[in-house]
């Protein structure tokens, strides 16, 4: 079977599936976007909008993608010329929707580790207008480093180096300013990224004119992304799909129909990000707080508070959870009864959105592995659920029972049984699983003195974790009854099993 690339496009015109093809003129479009990250979320949402706009003749610009990690992927982008298939499946307004798109938004991909000078050269391009990123929540953090390294190690370091290169090349001219849209799931992500760039500028003793240029001519936008993009289907489904498509695609991704990219910006941002006109799922408004809170707390928060419970219960995907009597009840009840009342937006709209989220979780076309949701589990728990817990206490002054159960399952998921070459491994019913979290070492040590049948040691462990301000930004022991609720549920899970406790407590 031939691999997807530009050369085979003419032969696919008679595909059994209704493929959406790029026209030849798209390959001649200038490179206007620098994108830090090659992940499925960027390719399934921002790059989807850019591709759609290019096909409509609106934006007319392509993406230079920067691969920042040492994970595989860039080679496939190179061999496929940046092309990849996006399969969109789900329900929209009561009807089933299926789209098969050959996305041509990506022009080329570079590795930051080995091709940093080539990446910096794009700072000299007058056609460059936009910088996008999704480096996970951990990516938007300050690291004291020399931005003159090749490359700087952190994403903000790389960004500062690129911006400084552009400032020097264009002499700080107004027209050289950029629009920067981080897509990490961090509240006020644009503001925080700009603040870190300022700290790095000071640390590296960059001239005052650089930050004056940043403040006057470069816009950092707070943004929100909302689309379930689990990536490639499981092996059997992928093989069948590729057979129907008639070609091999190592970069094929699946996504749901629902899409939202909300960007906080003004008229200049709308002018630069003209691709927002291509689809109603992209919104540019002066205040995106309601969209952010609704999505972060209801969709992402529900994912995070339920993923450990579902995985340790013995399930592997979101769909399996929604098809299980008890887990589906837990997910529905924790969202509707404990999260919705604690979200600071209009409750009626929150409940409507919650119902939409449940429908999205039930989408039979999307296979969303739970283990993928556990990536940087601790950071996600902090960003998505801690404020919800605090809000719940402010409203009800008692421990949220279902959130407490989900938090207890999170703590158990973070229990590594062994460490191998710097990697931490948990165990579910005798089968190992990876703990892909920057705090894995912390929890490995914290779990050592815990004895599963000793209520005192379990309570001390929970108390220690909840008290850690570096994890949560606050001492969660100060919430009346929260420690006791989690410790009781964790002790029950340790001695009875996750499935037994869930079936006892979920009605």
Question: If you had to describe this structure to a student in words, what would you say it looks like?
Answer:
- One of its GO terms (molecular function) is mannitol-1-phosphate 5-dehydrogenase activity.
- Pfam families: Mannitol_dh, Mannitol_dh_C.
- Keywords: NAD, Oxidoreductase.
- With 507 residues, the protein is an alpha/beta fold.
- The protein folds into two domains: 6-285, Rossmann fold (3-Layer(aba) Sandwich), CATH 3.40.50; 289-505, N-(1-d-carboxylethyl)-l-norvaline Dehydrogenase, domain 2, CATH 1.10.1040.
- Helices cover 46% and strands 15% of the residues.
- The protein is built from 21 helices and 16 strands.
- It has helices at 40-44, 46-55, 74-79, 116-121, 155-170, 189-203, 208-217, 235-245, 267-272, 289-313, 318-323, 325-339, 347-361, 370-373, 377-396, 401-413, 440-447, 455-467, 469-472, 482-496, 498-505; strands at residues 19-20, 31-36, 62-67, 84-92, 95-103, 106-111, 130-133, 179-182, 219-220, 223-226, 253-255, 260-264, 282-285, 418-420, 423-428, 431-434.
- It has a six-stranded parallel β-sheet with strand order 6-3-2-7-8-9.
- Strand 7, helix 5 (155-170) and strand 8 (179-182) form a beta-alpha-beta unit.
- Helix 10 packs antiparallel against helix 12.
- The longest helix is centred in the middle third of the chain and has 25 residues, at 289-313.
- The protein is globular, with a radius of gyration of 23 Å.
- The protein starts with 18 loop residues before the first strand and ends with a helix.
